[in-house]
Each structure stands twice: as structure tokens, then as C-alpha cells.
Amino acid sequence: MGKWEITRTITCDVLVVGGGGAAAKAALTAYQSGAQVRIAVKSPWLKGGSTATAFSELLAIAAAIGHGDERDEPEIHYQDTMDAGRGFIDPALVRTLAEDAPKRINDLIDLGLNFDKQKNGKLVQGMSDFATYPRTCRVNGVTARHILNIIAKELKKNNVPIDEQMMVFQLVTDNEKRIVGAIAFDIDKNEFVFYQTSSVILACGGAHFLYTYGVGTPDMTGDGYAMAYQQGIPLVNMEFVQIGPGVINPPVTLLSGPVWKTHPILSNQKGERFLERYLPTGVNVKDVNNHKAFPFTVSNHSFYLDTSIQRESEDNPSPHGGVWCKMAPGSEAIVEEKMPKTKRVLKSKGIDVHSDKFEVGLVAQCMNGGSQITSPDGETDILGLFIAGETAGGLRGPDRPGGNSLAEGQVYGYRTGKAAAHYSMKHGKELSSQEWCIQEFQTIKQWIENSQNGTKDVLESIDELRRNMYRNCLVIRNEVRLMDAWEYLLKTEQDLEQGKYSVRLDTIKSALELRNMIITAKSIVLAALTRTESRSCHYREDFPQKDDNNWKKSIRIREVDGNMVAEEYEWPAEPIRTGVH
Fold first, then answer.
1. Closest to 63 (Cα-Cα) out of 49, 54, 74
2. Nearest-angstrom CA–CA distance, 517 and 510
3. Partner residues linked to 10 by β-bridges
4. Start and end of every Fumarate reductase/succinate dehydrogenase flavoprotein-like C-terminal domain (predicted)?
5. Rg (the chain; Cα; Å)
6. What is the layout of strands, in order, in the sheet containing 323-326?
7. Distance separating alpha carbons of residues 327 and 322, to the nearest angstrom
8. Which of 18, 158, 238, 476 is least enclosed, having the fewest CB within 10 Å?
9. Which CATH class is domain 16-240+368-566?
10. Tens digits of per-residue pLDDT, 72-130?
11. Under CATH, which architecture does the 241-365 domain have?
């Protein structure tokens, strides 16, 4: 076989794409449900994505177990989450999240996860944004990593196979739009692989690295969104990208709300303190810092912190394109009180927060949008395709209550794993995949062969795309910036399709990533252009007011006749309130 051929076929009942908390939970549940499961992860196992690298002073998982306050219960968790996103999220999905989260906490405890506990043996639960009662559970300050590691240990014990450095990039369906497999590229072996399977769970995280700086690892290039979109799955709420301040050199460290309660001093490359210049009459720096939480929002005075960082990083940037930050003299005690974990993490990276100044910029942290799922089992309009975690859309709107993301991963990892296993065991033997794989791969092969004489550099364009999104679709958005991004993305997409890029065996992975980045970035930009208002983490400088009369609803991005289009979308009606809230 030539190098542009599929050289290996792997057969399984359920293929899980991704390596974070949702993917691990999905794989373990599918295995426990009796399916033959395989995990394909683009990075080294336990080294990539959000779950493995997540950090903040407040990182935790939300569940209404009533240990922090006995009055808390799933109905109140449901109402709190709806209050944060009503009009933008699916009530049925949210109810499932709230009702199932306590069960998934118990699963983790049964696996041996040692949550922080009170003296009476109950779990420590903390307050988070949008919560009526303390609801978030923690594990020694790095909750996400502990969750992933404890599930990974169980996967290893049960010998669930994990294909590392394996980039799944194309779903394969038959003429009845049923999953029959997926095509991947083995990064280590430089070969194409066909997964013959009737069930695929996309749980491959977000798209933080569409921007110059992002939380997580550079493999987060929107692959799941792009694969779903190419199969006709709508992308919903894509304009709502959670972005906020973080240390950008050395590698990114998110600076969450407690950090700003220490009132650090920001300055530009000229050494000028700048935040004061951007504040209107009646607003002071202390007020801004006290309101600051991660991420950026237009909803309070912390708005001026993030927007001033972007403006100064454009006009008077530090060496890595940010601004300078230094702790105020005499702040040692409050630093230790408010940000001890951040202080220790930065110390491990060579920064002494008491004596050093360090570069701060805006970093992408979470995609609130995603590929729309149609049921509490993470189903989609494609039979056999399930989606969980950050890749899934419909649970997060303009705002995402603290702790819900890790809860989503466990709840929907469990439900998609169980549903995919049952689907595969019921329908898997009915499907024939070989002809559809050959047909799908011919298109890919033709694109690669057409690019043999291309001259444009893929890696340079990836960096350029990230710079363009960072400049035009960060926290300050307007029609001019967004149209610049849109036109750039259209031109780059056209050049990639027409073979103007040099695609060789050693650049295939990057070329596929660029393709996925373009699709995902276009969906963000088009949604941001369409939403002519400002709301939460979406700020249109040319439409600075919230407009509930016209825009308290979602925007869906779909492919229609080969074109990407935006449409307004109304979610199913919410059940009548029970009166407990």
C-alpha cells in the first residue's frame, strides 16, 4: 500500500475520542456495560486537554448533595443553572445534570477518590457563581486531575485499550446516516487507521488554541466541533467563549477571582499604570478588582479590567503580547490568604509573586458552545454518534455556573457511555462499513494528492489564525474586527481546499488541525457577527447593550448547501416551576 492509504483497521463496539474526564468516564461506563471499547486520544494519555491540566483557586465539581447546606437539592441546582442560562440551554439536559451529579460523585468515591472532608466526615462544599447554596466539591486544589487519574486507574485495571497520539479526524456514515466508523491518523507511525465501529463518542474537549493563549494544551483545536459539523450536527452558542486574564509567560496559568482580591498592579511596556485611564466617573480600581471573577463579563465593573488589558496589549504590549503585573507592596498576608495555590504554582514556574513582575494576557478557558445533543443520553441526529463534555452543546449558555463543567463531564460521560454500548450491541452487527470507508477516504486522499505542489506553510497559517482570532474575536468585538477575521478564514479555507498548502506526510496532522480550526473559528465569528448585542462574555463594542427583546435565544450554526449559515434557535419549553426555589 502507498503512504496515502489506510494501512490498519481496528474493530470495536464503541470508540471514544478524547482523553479528558468525560472521555474517561464514557469509556469506563461503556466497558462496564459490556461493550468492547477503545479510546483514541490525540495527545499522550493523561498529558493533554483541559482535565489533565486544569487549575484555578476555585476548581471543583458541582453536585447538590447537601453537605455544605442541607437545604441544597438537585431541583435548586437545576433552577440555579437555568437562571444563569435561561433561553440559551436545554431544560431537559440541565435537569439530567442536576439530578445525576450526586450519583456521579458517589461513583468517584466508590473508586477511591478522596474528596476534601469536614471533621464530621461530610464533603467540604464551596460557594460558586450562580449557586444558592455551597455546592462545589474539591480534591486538594486540583480536582480535575484527581478525577481523571482515578478513572484512568480503573481503565488500566480493566485493560481498556488506549491509542495515544491518534488523531481521529473523519466520521464515516452510511447512506442512512448511521455511524459505521471513523478515520484517524497515527501521529507516531505516520499512517492512516480505520476504526470499524457502530458507536462513536466525541468527548475531545474544546478549542482553546484557536487563540494565541489558551488554558490546556495545543492539541485543543476544535476537532470534535468540526467533525460533528461536517456530519450536519448544528453548533450552538459558539459566540460565548470564556476568556479572562492569566499569566502568559512562562506557560499559561489562569488568574481566577481570588487573585484580583489582592489588588495587584498592572502596567504596560512603558511602565505606566493604565487601568485608571479606562474607568468612568464613579468607578475605581478597587471596585473593579473586587468584582473580578473568571471569565470576562459585561455584567459588572470587572469589564474594565479585561478590556483594558486587551487595549494595552495592542497599543503598548509586553514582550509576549500582554501587560505587566506585580503584587502591591505589603500584600504578603492577603496573597497567602486569597491565592496560596496560584502562588505555589507560579513559584514552580520560576515566578516569585512577591518580588517579580510577570506578564499577564487574556487566555481562552472554556467553550460555552458546542455540538448540539438532542437527548439526556448525549444523542445526535446521526445514529450511533454521541457527544459529551465540552464538545457537547446545550448545557452552557452565556454563563456557566462554577463546578458545572466537571459535573457535565461525569454525568454525560456516564450517560453516553451506557447509551453507546447499548446501541452498539443492538445494531452493530447490522452495519457494513468497508465501502463507506473507502468512499470517504478517497475524498481525503484526493485533497492530499492535490496539495503535493502547494507552497503555503501549514504551521505558519495555524499561528496566523490564532493571532487573527486573538486580535479580532477576543473580548473586544465589533463588525470591523469580526469581518476581518471572517474574510481571513474564508481565504485560508479556500486556499486549503484548492491545494495551495504543502501537505506532506509530516504535516498531515497540522493540515487536518488547520481544517478543523477554520471550521470552528468560522462558527465562533459568524455567531458573534450575528448576535448584535452584548451579553455576559460576548461584548460587541458597536452594540454595547443587552437586548432581551430580540436576543434572549441561541444562535445555531449549520451547513446548508455547502455554506455555513447562522439561524436563531428557541429551546424546548421549560417545565413549570415547582416552587421550591
1. 74
2. 10
3. 195
4. 463-557
5. 23
6. 253-254, 241-249, 358-367, 323-326, 265-267
7. 16
8. 158
9. alpha beta
10. 999 999 999 999 999 999 999 999 999 999 999 999 999 999 999 999 999 999 998 89
11. Alpha-Beta Complex (3.90)
Q: Is the Cα torsion angle 419, 422, 426, 429 positive or negative in sign?
A: positive
C-alpha cell at 420: 453507546
In this prediction, residue 53 carries a pLDDT of: 80
Closest CA to 462 of 418, 498, 514, 421: 514
pLDDT at 129: 86
Q: Are strands 241-249 and 358-367 parallel, antiparallel or unpaired?
A: antiparallel
DSSP lists the bridge partners of residue 62 as: 136
Write out the residue limits of the CATH 3.90.700 domain(s) in the chain: 241-365
Computed from CA positions of residues 289, 294, 298, 300, in that sequence, does the dihedral angle turn out positive or negative?
Answer: negative
- CATH 3.50.50.60 segments of the chain: 16-240+368-566
- Find out whether 236 and 251 touch, Cβ atoms under 8 Å: no
* Length of the chain, in residues: 581
pLDDT at 576: 65
- C-alpha closest to that of 392 among 89, 32, 85: 89
pLDDT of res. 579: 46
- Cell 450562580 locates to 130
3 state SS of 198:
coil
Residues of the chain with pLDDT under 70: 1-3, 58, 429-433, 576-581
β-partners of residue 171 are 182
> Model-level pTM?
0.96
DSSP codes joined into one string, 257-294? HHHHTT-PEEE-TTS-B-GGGGPPTT--HHHHHHH--S
- By CB atoms closer than 10 A (0-12, 13-18, 19+), residue 458 is buried
Q: Which regions of 299-433 does DSSP assign to beta strands (E)?
A: 323-326, 358-367, 370-372, 385-387, 392-393
Residue identified by cell 511596556 is 269
The CA distance from 150 to 143, in Å, is 11
